[in-house]
Structure formats: structure tokens, C-alpha cells
Please model this.
Amino acid sequence: MLTGKGITHPIVVKLGGSIVTRKDEPYTPNKEAIDKLADILSSYYRSNGQLILVHGGGSYGHYAVEEARKRKGVLDTVDVAQVQKRMLELSVIIASSLIEHGLPVSIHPAHTLCKSENDCCFDVIIEDLSNGLVPMTYGDIIVTDKGYKIISGDDLTLWLASTTGSRRVIFVMDQPGVLDKTGKVMERVTPQTLGEVGIAKKESVDVTGGIAKKLESALEFVVDHDVEVRVVGIEGLKEILSGGKAGTVITK
Ligand SMILES: Nc1ncnc2c1ncn2[C@@H]1O[C@H](COP(=O)(O)OP(=O)(O)OP(=O)(O)O)[C@@H](O)[C@H]1O
Ligand SMILES: [Mg+2]
Model:
């Protein structure tokens, strides 16, 4: 674990693409949701809470990859650069709102942190955090000697938690938690109750596997990490950051 000076169990919050964008409309941010999230996160920051932020691709990254795949089959370096640019655009939109709300956000594109889809160096994020900034990275795309690779924002979130000694990870989505087959928010998802998870609606394009992969990765992660992993909606985030309970906990 790479905890630096002054790092006190930061909360890692993943702002899902399903909430920060309108996932079914290409390249469309959900400004209203972003502003609400900024308001909630800035209150937490002002109460001296340390935060690391990750955001997803939503109708930017996922759509840009799908669009290039449909057009050409395989992405070339210009397509990769285009996807990277689209993600940076989304990140700037999110950071602008966060900064306006008083959060000192520092953007770290994952393509500058990662050499492969599972080899990322978070030193600069840790340095930022210990100097009072709120580092933010995001799901991204890189080119390796084995071709282009997509770096999942969900994976980055879990890796950042284990690297920084975080005890809490919060995935914020457009649903109030993980829904069961009747549409009710599940209090917890465990390997035993995974089969009860329902499909809330037709899932939008998600090149990193959507909710199913998110739950699979989180369940794997909690086996050997003492970190609380939760899935919440916007209201749930507010509740959790002010000491309450909301959403779904993913646990072993
Ligand atoms: N049982 C379920 N419970 C909760 N959400 C579900 C369920 N089934 C499908 N979903 C859908 O899964 C989506 C969340 O997963 P997805 O990976 O698409 O979003 P995200 O992680 O917020 O986006 P991104 O990957 O762009 O960051 C939500 O939009 C939700 O509607
Ligand atoms: Mg996703």
C-alpha cells in the first residue's frame, strides 16, 4: 500500500457514466446531475473528507469506441486519440462544475497513468491527495504492443482504493442501488445473492461489461480487501457522505 503523508483513508467515488452523461444520447453530459454531485461532494470536502474521484465513459467513451468499431472493426491510433479526446472533454465538463463548487480537482487521464489495462501507477494521484487536491481520473483507452486496450473506470476505482488505504468505495449510478428482479433495491449483494439481481432496463452500450461486470469485479475485490463497497444513486451518495445508510453494499 502506497499511503503518503497526510493521507487518511480517502473515499473513492466513481461517478458512473450512467449518471454524469445521458447514456443514450451521444456526447451529452447530464449537467443537472453533475451539478448536484458537485454540490454533495463539495460539502463533504469542506468537512475535511479526503476524496479521490473516478468517472465513467457514458455516452462519451463507450459511444466513441462503439462508433469506431462499427465503422472500421478495429480502432487505429487516430480512433484511439479521438476516444481519448472525447473522454478528456467529458472530464473537463465534470471538473468545471466541481471546481465552481469549490473542489480543487486535478484531472489525471488514465492514459497517462497506465501502461496496460492492469498496470497503472498512482503516485501522482497520491501526491495530489497529500497536497490537498482532489485527484480525478477516468475510464480511458491506451495503445499497447498488443493493440488498444480499454481501461475500465470501475477497475481504476477498486485499484485506487487498495493503493491508497481507502476503506470506502462508492459507485454512483442512475439507479438508487442494485435492483432485484422485482425492481427493489437490494440491501446487499453477496456471491450467494448475485442470482437475485434483476435487469433494470435495456442496458446502454457499455464496452466494459456494465452492471454485471461491475458486480463481479466488486465481489472479487471484497474477498481480500477490508473496504466497504456500495452502489448508490445521487440521493444515496448524499446520505452516505453525511453518515447515513443507502443503496446496496457489495460484500462477501
Ligand atoms: N439490476 C440492476 N440494478 C441496477 N442497475 C442496473 C441493473 N440492471 C441494469 N442496470 C443498469 O446498469 C447501469 C449501470 O451500469 P453501467 O456500467 O451501464 O453504468 P455506469 O458504470 O454508471 O456507466 P460507465 O460504465 O459509463 O461509468 C445503470 O444504468 C442501470 O440502469
Ligand atoms: Mg460501466
